[in-house]
Please model this.
Amino acid sequence: MHKNKGRTGQLAYHFMMAPGMIFLVIFSFVPMLGIVMAFENYVPAQGIFGSKWVGLANFQYMLQIPDSWNILRNTVIIALGKIIFGTIVPIIFALLLNEIRLKWAKKTMQTIVYLPNFLSWAVVAAIVINVFDYTGPINNFLTGLGMHPIMFLASNHWFRKIMIGTDVWKNFGYGAIVYLAALTGIDPGLYEASAMDGANRFKQLLHVTLPGILPTIMLISALNLGNILNAGFDQIYALYNPIVYETGDVIDTYVYRVGLLGQQYSFATAIGLLKSVVSFVLLISANKLSIKFANMRIF
Amino acid sequence: MKKKIIAGIAAGIMLASSTVGLVGLPNPFTGNLQAAAATKQQLKPFGKYKKTITYTIGKSTPGIPKLPKGSTYEKNAYTKYLKQLLNIQNKDSFEAETGDSYNQKVSMAVASSDLPDIMSVDLNTLRELVANNEIQDLSSVYKSSTTPYIKAMYNSYHGRALKEATFNGKLMAMPSTQNANVPTMLWIRQDWLDKLGLKAPKTVDQLQQVLQAFVQRDPGNNGKGNTIGLALSKSVGGEYGGLFVADSLFSIYNSYPRQWIKQNGKVVYGSTTNQTKQGLAKLASWYQKGLIDPQMAVRDSIESLIISGKAGAFFGPWWSGDYPINSALQKDPKADWKPYIISKTGNGKISAYTQDPDSEFYVVKKGYAHPEILPKIVSALSDRLVRKDKNYKPVVDFVQGGYDGGKPINVLVNFDNATAQMYKNLQATVDGKKDPKTLTLDDTTSYNAIKTYLKDPKNAPVNAKSSYWSRMLGAKLMATTKVKNVDSLYFGQTKSMQLKWSNLQKLEDEAFLQIVTGQKPVSYFKTFVRQWHQQGGTQITKEVSQAVK
Model:
């Protein structure tokens, strides 16, 4: 009797989960069949089953062109930069915001920095282009100081930095919210106790707050590792140009240009597949490391 | 166990969401849902249908949306005309701006095998669609449903026009023809020249001096440092009859970038020649002197430079008066743009590469029941409407209002020497040697505008001005300039190009732009050529040589 009741209870949960699972199967599992294209000379009309099988030819070509390494390097550098600064900045911001005592000021600021997260990159890109324009505010400032204006978005020196910087600016408000939530989860009793022991606010930050949100930080950084090869397609596509291909062309933009516009579906899929495999390996190793060193499972 | 399953699923999500695999599962819904085929009566060019026939299209729209208020691309003067004449109505599967955005939409449609009934594609896509058996043979409907006038226009290219669209003797598309459109010319601010007391440039050196004067002396009162000498496109050169590309300059050095040409008896790719290096070096020196738009690499809309009155010169075809200068005039009626020819010695003799006789190809999806609708629309819009029905009021108003983009399917068919002929007809009519009533619709509209302009050139309305500049100044230069034609030999895609061409183009775009903007020295050209050959260029050159033999 009792046992049965438990089962029906579980069944209800399974039903609740069903739409999500169906969604997952349709949009994530079924499309994975497309991976086959990487080993074919895929022609849309002939379909996956009709196209000619070419084995590893697409991968061989990929290793031949010098662009591959260049693109991989760009992707990793930009993505790493985004992960590192995209983790540090929100933490610092959340910690600072947490120290503000005026509740309305805290809330207002939180909302304001959260805003850019809702804008699409097409919009933000237009803003970025204007800000970094030859006659935009930044260059006006530089010329005001007697320096030469810099063409930021057509400079291989600056392009990656701007990609990382603008991405962090757009997203840190969102990241901060997660950490703020983690901060509220810390037992206030700990603060009282540490104050009793003579800890000043900085010491409290160091010994109570940071250890308190450490699991969240670990979790989010580890999850981010899976994104190490996602350097952000929309952003870079909206901002790059042929001059900065050298430093700004990443896997996704390359796949888009070559695969869809150049209609080399198979070659593009091969690159995409390689990217997925690398991401997958990284994620698994992140999990292993996190189990070993922090005794925490991501999954 | 459970944990493992969850881990598996989570890993799956990660993998799937980071897979950029392009999926092209066959679409089960592309069957033939249309009614029975056309009767003999309906196959005639202007045979009207009893029931309204709806056809879906991929609509490419003009750069600046210029429909009259209240009109849409599915409902305007032209669609109304087609509805009345043939009882057909378009439904737009997608609408996208001509150029990159439209091409992207087409790529998506092809990749997902979800084609509209009729759309325009480029040569490579046409070949792909033919190879994949996705479009219809139009041979018989071309015969039955095209008027003799349209056929005569296609035939004026001596068979070249339809040849590219013909595969194994079957006509697979109706191409838009490209009548000769060279030379492109230098358009320059005449009012700036006058203000500075300068003569119109005839040689490269004179042009350099003029640009220098524009930039240094700021005749347009844009503020110091804000005047741009020459507006230039990111692609730098190699677009036939294109706007904002420096082909006119390159040809002075006998350079024909992005064209397969014959040099010393061998087939070479124009972008890799020493002559192209010279052209790039000249542009690079101009860029360094500040004569070229310093932000050319990141400039999204070059038109905006012309419209806002910041730029003093650009290279463009004869129709530049209509676009973008028309928009510039609306902002500043005093902007006085005039076309000139730049040549090596200043004698006005130039060379130019020839082009593909076809610019785009209109195809009909396999399985669509009314393939004859395409030649019928072409016959209606490019024959009947411009000749017999040229006084059809809604369209006359549309054209005279300066609007654009109304035709659902814009197959541009014209005689090979059409532009020069247009100029000659208009000039003859202005001189009173030709009866205005014998002009076509477009020419009548132009003639009226020219008349308005000639009455009071200074205060003429914008459309009259831009029309006069394009047709009486630009087209005149086309009709009268002596041009030595250099044949561009190959427009298709060889076997190795399929995999390697995108990468080589990237290399080329990158090198051109980096050399011009001084990010790489001119000597880098040698490295570029070496890399180009190493990464497949040598093989492709061999294949092209084979193909053109």
About this structure: The first helix of chain A runs from residue 2 to 29. The domain at 70-294 of chain A is CATH 1.10.3720.10 (MetI-like fold). Chain A has one domain: 70-294. Chain A has a mean pLDDT of 87.
